[in-house]
Design brief:
304 residues, 3-stranded mixed sheet
């Protein structure tokens, strides 16, 4: 039941994200299409004997430009979140002190750690990992339940699903419903994996005992044992409701922006030149003036 709900919720989140992504792309493309390159049509400003050019635009373009800027920010945030998650996952996997496969379970890797935990990691090729403390502390039934739980995550490629959902939520930050749906999918994925573990063992007691052991001995930042998971093992149904209000706001907002862009795209016009922004006859002077700012920004980026 929880696994089906998780799948439906994930499809809903992807639908909202796809609509937001398509609309973002259309805004940026319409803004680019409205640009007319030509020095004669650009605005000119005279400052200290220099003739500078500035983009000239009509009212429709003035409204379109902030939307396009928001779209560019959205794309950059999505790329940054994707790269950050991929690099973090690689660093995490490379730093794991793997000592070899688990006996009788060669697909499971054992990590040398005195803390009790088990997890599934890896985007394209997920693997199941357990610590030496987990392998030593759990009895065979409890260990089978834990491995069945993590195998479910591996089968569904939950690390990749969650990473993609979080990257989309970060990119489309103007749709807060995506973050709510992503967080709920993470919770339902845990409940679905619990159901798979119980179905394999035929009894919720081994998984409950393993969760109790994790809760008593493991680092709270490593495992995610929520009261909802405990209640679910006891037979309670999840009480979470779909955020219909946020979904309605997102749908109305996307429809309104799509209609606005469709109307503005007909008349928007931005006249500019091929010279760098606000430069014309003597661009090298202003370029040299801005060089210290570029060097300072590069130094800050390298330091970060």
């Amino acid at each position: 039941m929880a696994a089906r709900r998780a799948s439906h919720l994930y499809r809903l989140a992807l639908t909202v994200a796809a609509a937001g992504t398509v609309l973002t792309g259309l805004v940026v493309l319409d803004a680019l299409r409205s640009v007319d390159v030509g020095t004669a049509h650009a605005g000119h400003v005279h400052v200290l004997g220099l003739t500078l050019t500035a983009p000239a635009m009509n009212l429709a373009a003035a409204v379109m430009l902030p939307l396009a800027a928001l779209g560019v920010v959205s794309v950059l945030r999505g790329l940054r979140a994707t790269v950050a998650q991929v690099l973090a996952q690689r660093r995490f996997l490379r730093a794991l002190p793997v000592i070899g496969p688990l006996p009788a379970h060669p697909e499971v890797l054992v990590v040398r750690d005195r803390r009790a935990h088990a997890f599934c990691a890896g985007h394209l090729h997920p693997r199941v990992f357990i610590s030496t403390a987990t392998a030593d502390a759990l009895d065979p039934a409890e260990l089978d339940a834990v491995l069945a739980h993590e195998a479910r995550h591996r089968l569904r490629r939950d690390p990749l699903r969650i990473a993609a959902a979080r990257a989309l939520s970060d990119a489309l930050f103007f749709l807060p419903v995506l973050r709510r749906l992503t967080d709920r999918y993470c919770a339902l994925a845990e409940l679905g994996a619990d159901e798979a573990a119980v179905a394999r063992t035929g009894d919720p007691a081994p998984l409950a005992a393993a969760m109790l052991h994790f809760g008593e001995t493991a680092d709270a930042t490593v495992v995610g044992i929520s009261p909802e998971r405990v209640d679910h093992l006891l037979g309670a149904r999840p009480a979470w409701r779909l955020p219909t209000a946020l979904l309605a706001v997102a749908a109305i907002s996307l429809a309104a922006v799509a209609l606005l862009v469709w109307q503005l795209g007909r008349t928007a016009l931005i006249s500019t030149s091929l010279n760098p922004p606000l430069l014309s006859s003597q661009p090298c002077v202003v370029v040299l003036a801005g060089l210290p700012f570029v060097l300072a920004a590069t130094a800050l980026w390298l330091r970060r």
